[in-house]
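Worked problem 6 (solution included).
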Amino acid sequence: MKHPNPEPISAGEESVWDYPRPPRVEHVDRRVRITLGGEVIVDTTDVVRVLETSHPPVYYVPASAFVAGALTPGPGGSACEFKGTAHYFDVHGGGETRPHAAWGYPTPLPGYEALRDRVAVYPAMMDRCTVDGVEVTPQPGQFYGGWITPEIRGPFKGSPGTMGW
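Solution. The predicted structure is:
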């Protein structure tokens, strides 16, 4: 399938089509807040993001940044050819539970060690996720967990018809 035409970018914007494959992990000076059930369950500036061609960034925060009791191991897992085997978590906050709403790589593959002891959440399954106070839009689709902020340009993998990209 032919790749789509990237959206044009302006100064200060990023195109997901300029992101690498294999993905890159980078520490960023950003503040991430995650809210569930009306409760802030994460508020941290200890943030890394993973950048991969056609995907909005996925933000990972330390598991220790979650309030006590917000994460419990969930069933199942998945594999990434680059990062390794992911383990899933159920996320709890404000009296609500979202099964299978977060994941992490307890033993990441070489090159992805920065993800050890970190967790990412599906923003669509939370009440609200923000980066530097700006609410994110979840990446389209059921499988991907990218965070779309105003400076990120697509088109993004995850919408119907994009699986072949």
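Discussion: The longest strand covers residues 71-80.
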